[in-house]
Design a protein that fits this description.
Distance between the termini: 25 Å
Helix content: 40-55%
CATH superfamily of one domain: Rhodanese-like domain
Structural class: alpha/beta
Shape: globular
Strand order of the largest sheet: 1-6-5-2-4
Order of helices and strands: HEHEHEEHEHEHE
Length: 124
């Protein structure tokens, strides 16, 4: 399902100011200590998610990031379903002073397509 045009424009604008990385690079960075943050909705995270990821949905990430990553130099990789919401989240984190944040290009779809490890959520 295509995204509404204004949302696509917002995400495209954010992508001009952020770094995007591949799923393989995200996994490698996660293995060396980067935080992998799932910015999807709780219901999406509850179905399945990238192994070891932390859930901070797009709606609350700006509010809850500081207790999770008090050091603004913490390596952080955000992902969503397709790379749009996470791009907006990363743009906002940069505005908050975080200096080592990236968005997973293609989101969770790209993670799964790369056959990287996933784990089930709590959905019944």
């Amino acid at each position: 399902m295509p995204h509404p045009p204004r949302f696509e424009k917002l995400a495209a604008d954010a992508k001009t100011r952020i770094r995007e990385i591949s799923a393989a690079d995200a996994y490698k960075q996660q293995q060396t200590g980067a935080l992998l943050i799932d910015t999807r909705e709780e219901s999406e995270f509850a179905q399945e998610h990238a192994i070891g990821s932390i859930h901070l949905s797009k709606g609350v990430i700006e509010l809850k990031i500081e207790p999770t990553a008090p050091d603004t130099a913490t390596p952080i990789i955000c992902y969503c379903g397709g790379g749009y919401r996470s791009a907006i989240a990363v743009d906002n984190l940069q505005k908050m002073g975080y200096t080592n944040v990236q968005s997973l290009a293609g989101g969770f779809k790209a993670w799964k397509a790369a056959n990287l490890p996933i784990e089930p959520g709590t959905a019944k």
